[in-house]
Amino acid sequence: MVGQISGWQWGENCPTVSEDSDVETAATDEAVAADEAAVADAKALEGSWILNLDDAQISMVIYQSGSLLFGAANSEATNPWNGVVSGSADEGEVELEILSIRGGVLVSTLIRGIATEGTLTGSFVQSDSEGKVNEGNVMGFLTSPDTSGYEPANVPEETTSTVSPAAQAPEVQTAATTPAEETTNESGRRVPVDVTAYSERYIAPGAGAPMPL
After folding, report:
1. What ranges does the record list as Low complexity composition bias (predicted)?
2. For site-directed labelling of 57, which of 28, 50, 64, 140 has its Cα 20 to 30 A away?
3. Which of the following CATH numbers is that of domain 47-144: 2.40.128.30, 1.10.10.10, 1.20.1560.10, 3.50.50.60?
4. 29 compared with 130, residue with greater pLDDT
5. What is the pTM of this model?
């Protein structure tokens, strides 16, 4: 039996109320799954990484906020160092810059690559404040999505040599700087000093022995 109410036909082929609710539930589940996948993709690069740059190895921690990447990096090589990381990610393409100070020299390492399923492959260009440039290939691995396990390198503090003040030269007293000896008479009055008695003590700069009087 088929009826018509206000221009709407209903009958055996019309969807029931239960069918409508099932469709709405399925759509909701798909939306939730899509949101979860989007969140997972947004945090795909966050975690602890190991980067191999030719013959060098770098430990790195990455935090991610949307397409922005930031964190820290270090190396426990012969001359250990710590650095900061910044960059961005766009549909699997990653750009990173690591800034560090190594032995008093500022070093910039630019990395460009593709990140897929916890791996990073690409190339790097490294330059420093002394004008040196190095480039090569980079391979990275996400060791853990947990960022709390990252530890900076133990970099010894640079020792600064202190220059001790020069020893003070002993004061040389001459007749000009030596005070004249004073004498007093029985009444306590000062007796004038005979300056000729000190003439033999004074040697003028550049002069030889005093002439005998």
Report:
1. 165-182
2. 64
3. 2.40.128.30
4. 130
5. 0.57
